[in-house]
Amino acid sequence: MAYLKELFNENFLEYASYVVKERAIPHINDGLKPVQRRIMHSLIEMDDGKYNKVANVVGNSMKYHPHGDAAIYSALVVLANKGLFIDRQGNFGNTLTGDPASAARYIECRPAKLTYETVYNPEITEYELSYDGRNKEPKTYPAKFPIALVQGAEGIAVGMVAKILPHNFAEVLSAMKDALYDRPFTVVPDFYTGGYIDVSKYDEGRGRVLVRAKIEERSAKDVVITEIPYGTTTESLIASIESAVRKDKVKVTRVDDYSTDRAEVHLRVKRGFTAAEVIQSLYAFTDCEKSITSNILFIHENKPRVFTVSEVVVFAAQQLRDVLRKELELERHKLQEKLHRRSLELIFVSERIYKKIENKRKQETIVAAVVEGLLPFKKELYRDITEQDVEYLLSIPIRRISAYDIQKARNAVRSMEERIAEIRRLLSDMVSYAAQWIDTMLQQYGERFSRQTTIVDMDPTSAHEAAVRDRDLKYNGNKGYLGYDLEDTPTRFKVSVYDRILVIDREGTYRVIDAPEKIFIGYRLRYIGLATEENLDAVIFSLLYRHTPSGTLFLKRCKIKKYILDKKYSLLPDDSCELLELRDESEGGFVVRLITTGRMKKTQLVCPFEKYAVKGVGAKGYKITSKEVDSVRYYKEREQENDSLPLFEQE
């Protein structure tokens, strides 16, 4: 048993490690998953300038990717639709509508120009053996910008998930330039689907964004969706709309999809409702509004690590400097070798050193003669003379020597020396050179990658607020029923199925309930109202109650702001109190008539609401009188007679 446990633990760890590093999570160096990297390697390997059948590319990729042709084909289609590295021909599907791509045997592709400009350089790429040891594939590409940050990436591994939202290519390059100069920068997502985005809670890629469709009100009865949220298609969006229509949450009678390369979904507003109400309900009850969580997870130094957007940009800026430095050093090395050979040729011909070997018969004497002839010009060469250099000079045909253009050779040498000097200057200031490279790329591709998604500030649309109030809430005090499915009962107000109702009974007990279809709530309620945040903040309850043991009368004014749904509360301090009067008006007051006794001079007390401060719902209120009360009544307009206020104490 212990052996099996150890075996399972070891195998599971190996499996988990493989899934994380070799399948699901992109690498920070080039932002590619293994399957994407192998597809690009195959495309470059097969590239002859012409389009290749996707089926052939998939077949060639299977030399490197051991997971079947279906996985390679779907990954290639997704990568091609990103519009960065693959030049495509044929039907690759429609990312807006959700239409699938044609079969692999019908569509064609080849590497795009951007691939060679920003990713591919075999001379500075580290290669490793493929899974079967027959071929070599790149470990990672020397990418010059953060690919995953631009095109986005998703992957589910064992115990972790990568969710990298796509960002604008030009904006990311501009941010890299700022990072090179240690200037502050901000980068936020940008989606090919357009729409609106709120990035207030993006938190450098550690939070979430709120995305919305762009919806236009073409007329009082016509609404058109012209841009859709990221992560949806017009097909999935229409499905969510039709589901909401069936549940009577969105009031439309027709949904027509005219989308092509741009989204265009037409909605017909139901009679009796407005386009504005429909737009609000679309945001509240359909996929027209979504919240998307971000988790920027990469493989870094052979293990997974969560990054922020700024960290990825700074890493990419540093890698750009390193890659450009390697390219310059490689170019300088090649130029120096070429200049060395060209200088040898020029000296060999112009100084007529080839004449010194005319009478030589042995190889040793020939080589020695050439070396001896070149020694006076050693300072003009970039390195020491080798045996291979002599062999090269001796292999020059006499025909070429006789037609040798010395001036042209000198011009070529001068040109190479100038370029080497320029490379030396560029290497001394790599920040400026990297910034210059970024400027060149922005000039070439800036217009092509313009921002598609509009950045706005917005709050999530509440389903409660967006729901159309189209139901008549009724209350039958004689039978004690409340709901919108009551007959022969006058309507109190309009509600939606998402509304909540505040009810207060005769004893001062209150609770908040969902708007009911029909429910027994009790006889002769004192208050029924909407429990929206605005209503609860606006309504001030004024109540008179009596403390029964002492007979003391209290006046209390309060607001009901917090509650737990369906939980009962009381406006009164305890069970020994009796509610006499309750009003939700903000103006007016109470008139208290006292029972006349012996020498009483004042038999009536006027209590205007404006003289009493609004307290918390748990407050005791103000003491009005300890004398016996005959009656109380509410007045709306101030009493003209006997309107002096009683003395009171705050409890």
TrEMBL record:
<dbReference type="InterPro" id="IPR002205">
    <property type="entry name" value="Topo_IIA_dom_A"/>
</dbReference>
<dbReference type="GO" id="GO:0005737">
    <property type="term" value="C:cytoplasm"/>
</dbReference>
<dbReference type="GO" id="GO:0005524">
    <property type="term" value="F:ATP binding"/>
</dbReference>
<feature type="domain" description="Topo IIA-type catalytic">
    <location>
        <begin position="25"/>
        <end position="473"/>
    </location>
</feature>
<dbReference type="GO" id="GO:0003918">
    <property type="term" value="F:DNA topoisomerase type II (double strand cut, ATP-hydrolyzing) activity"/>
</dbReference>
<dbReference type="InterPro" id="IPR013758">
    <property type="entry name" value="Topo_IIA_A/C_ab"/>
</dbReference>
<dbReference type="Pfam" id="PF00521">
    <property type="entry name" value="DNA_topoisoIV"/>
</dbReference>
<dbReference type="GO" id="GO:0009330">
    <property type="term" value="C:DNA topoisomerase type II (double strand cut, ATP-hydrolyzing) complex"/>
</dbReference>
<dbReference type="InterPro" id="IPR013760">
    <property type="entry name" value="Topo_IIA-like_dom_sf"/>
</dbReference>
<feature type="active site" description="O-(5'-phospho-DNA)-tyrosine intermediate">
    <location>
        <position position="106"/>
    </location>
</feature>
<dbReference type="GO" id="GO:0003677">
    <property type="term" value="F:DNA binding"/>
</dbReference>
<protein>
    <submittedName>
        <fullName>DNA topoisomerase IV subunit A</fullName>
    </submittedName>
</protein>
<dbReference type="GO" id="GO:0006265">
    <property type="term" value="P:DNA topological change"/>
</dbReference>
<comment type="similarity">
    <text>Belongs to the type II topoisomerase GyrA/ParC subunit family.</text>
</comment>
<keyword id="KW-0799">Topoisomerase</keyword>
<keyword id="KW-0413">Isomerase</keyword>
<dbReference type="InterPro" id="IPR050220">
    <property type="entry name" value="Type_II_DNA_Topoisomerases"/>
</dbReference>
<dbReference type="InterPro" id="IPR013757">
    <property type="entry name" value="Topo_IIA_A_a_sf"/>
</dbReference>
<keyword id="KW-0238">DNA-binding</keyword>
